[in-house]
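ok trying again, last paste got cut off:
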Amino acid sequence: MSNIPAELKYIASHEWLRLEDDGTITVGITDHAQDLLGDVVFVELPDVGDIIAVDDEISVVESVKAASDVYAPISGEVIAINEALEDDPEIINSDPYGEGWFFKVKPDNIADYEALMTADEYESEL
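nice, full thing came through this time. structure:
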């Protein structure tokens, strides 16, 4: 079974979200998603300042097996991107919940975060 940290929130398209102390939300793809993709070779990230809405195609991950869209799990403004992924995208495979994060969002409504799937709910979807 995939690694599914209990403290995170999830969406069905295999993105995870972590609420930070400053109220921002960090987003990445799950261990299950990176496992399905295989060795990640390229990531296209959003731009800082982008305004995103739930379900927007916001990023693309390319692996040796496939290319996959990453969807915005919450609405808000992109306030940071993980520039390390541009030179070293395989971090996503080795540390999807840590150094392999994609972007940070200042959410429009924090209640949207609270309504997302828990780890147990996400695991039951797999």
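cool. The domain at 9-117 is CATH 2.40.50.100 (OB fold (Dihydrolipoamide Acetyltransferase, E2P)). Strands lie at 9-10, 15-19, 25-29, 40-44, 51-52, 57-63, 67-71, 76-81, 103-107.
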